[in-house]
Amino acid sequence: MKNSTSLQLPRKQSTPSTQNIWQVILASSAGTLIEWYDFYIFGSLAAIIAEKFFPPSNPTLAYIATLATFAVGFIVRPFGAIVFGRLGDMVGRKYTFLLTLILMGGSTFAIGLIPSYHTIGVLAPILVLVLRLLQGLALGGEYGGAATYVAEHSPNHRRGYYTSFIQTTATLGLFVSLGVILLTRMSMTPEDFNNYGWRIPFLLSVLLVLMSYYIRIRLHESPLFAQMKKEGKTSTNPIKESFGNKENLKLVLIALFGAAMGQGVVWYTGQFYALSFLQKTMNIEFVQSNTIIAIALLLGTPFFIFFGGLSDRIGRKKIMLTGMLVAALAYYPIYGAMDRIGNTSQKTEDQALYRIESNSHKNESGEIVTTTTRIHTYTDGSVLKETGDKKELTVSRMNSVWLVLLIFVQVIFVTMVYAPIAAFLVELFPTRIRYTSMSLPYHIGNGVFGGLLPTISTILVAKSGNHLAGLIYPIGIALICFVVGLLYLKDKRGEAL
């Protein structure tokens, strides 16, 4: 009887009152959203950061270098997962993701203070790289802690539903970053935004972090972990238990190659690569391209909750693998349709509306710069502005609606693969090493396979000249993951933790 009582106590504590679970979700989600916001400002402003922190002699190479620096933050996430996962399994979930929150916020704030390449030369990209590494380490420890914390408070039969709120934070973080950038951009002239306004979203992060810290510091430790720590059953070496144990290592590898890497490429294709494709391949104007992505994200976000709840009823595996397969089959026609909308060679220009404008403004050095812009207007309502080598296309309202729809469909794929994965990973590993074990495959799948996607795909497009060549990578990874997942994934939905 004594053993039975001991086993039942954590299960009982993991089914809290409705009020308590929503407090847990709010506090965890608020902090995670802010960390994603901090992390994604960099990617959302990649085009401007390329101009500010890298040598101006080759704009294409500077943009690729910026994407590579962005990707570095993802590559180090697995190391953050190991460092902070170990801390979370030994010390606790709560204090670990408080630490990651402060580290992320401080790094983001500091990026907003770095002088430009014009001012300090090669030191600028070096400082950006160092701070990007710190961001990646922090995020590597954040997600596993937040997802584990919420899951260990959730009732067994609704774990997918409750953890899906954590899953919304990555997309909402991107949405908030785009919203803050757009509001900042629209509150000043393009020249002022280009000179100093782009720094404001970075600097604002310190206020958001302080607010989130205040919310999180009042949380209690996860009941499952607290009970385990009280009984002296916490792991003394979670890294060894997670990766030195053959059976657990097998689960880690299945989680990576059967779920996380496919989920990672679908997530980044449907959101970040979509934004990169609009801005760099289609040359869609900055405000319009960000608005298109933001609307698609806003429309798609409720589907995280829908698919999270559905996974409690029909299983995590079916939804995730279906999302990977449908995405892989749909990407070529979707991006082909997007590319045609932006292809000015297939549009008819209204020659009577062609004009040339000159504009003078001060650059960062205070020098007066005069630019000449050639403006082409097309019969479908699109307008192309050419300033030197820079092209900026504003598409018609109808075409912008089509672009929102095409990206919204991609966001649906994102919600299918991403909504159930937190519950799936939590259910896969035992409590004593859960933080460490689930964080590593998740962050390799997202950080390495997903995080490298914009860089790899942009290079493929640049090398081949084919606008759709960048899709080879996400389609290939998604299909491999679908096959592995179909053969080896086991669904443990609703099982006691």
Secondary structure layout:
Elements: H1 2-13, H2 18-44, H3 46-53, H4 59-75, H5 77-90, H6 93-111, H7 117-120, H8 123-151, H9 159-186, H10 190-195, H11 200-217, H12 223-230, H13 238-243, H14 246-281, H15 286-300, H16 302-314, H17 316-342, E1 355-362, E2 368-377, E3 383-387, E4 390-394, H18 397-418, H19 421-428, H20 434-450, H21 453-464, H22 472-488
Task: Describe the model.
With 497 residues, the protein is mostly helical. It has 2 domains: 13-218 and 235-348 and 391-488, Up-down Bundle (Growth Hormone, Chain: A); 351-390. It is built from 22 helices and 4 strands. It has helices spanning 2-13, 18-44, 46-53, 59-75, 77-90, 93-111, 117-120, 123-151, 159-186, 190-195, 200-217, 223-230, 238-243, 246-281, 286-300, 302-314, 316-342, 397-418, 421-428, 434-450, 453-464, 472-488; strands at 355-362, 368-377, 383-387, 390-394. Strands 1-2-3-4 form a 4-stranded antiparallel sheet, with no helix packed on it. A hairpin with a 5-residue loop joins strand 2 and strand 3. Helix 14 runs parallel beside helix 20 (434-450). The longest helix is centred in the middle third of the chain and has 36 residues, at 246-281. The relative contact order is 0.16. Mean pLDDT is 85; it is low at 1-19. One of its GO terms (molecular function) is transmembrane transporter activity. InterPro entries: MFS_dom (IPR020846), MFS_sugar_transport-like (IPR005828), MFS_trans_sf (IPR036259), Sugar_transporter_CS (IPR005829). It is a multi-pass membrane protein. Residues 24-493 form the Major facilitator superfamily (MFS) profile domain. It is found in: Cell membrane.
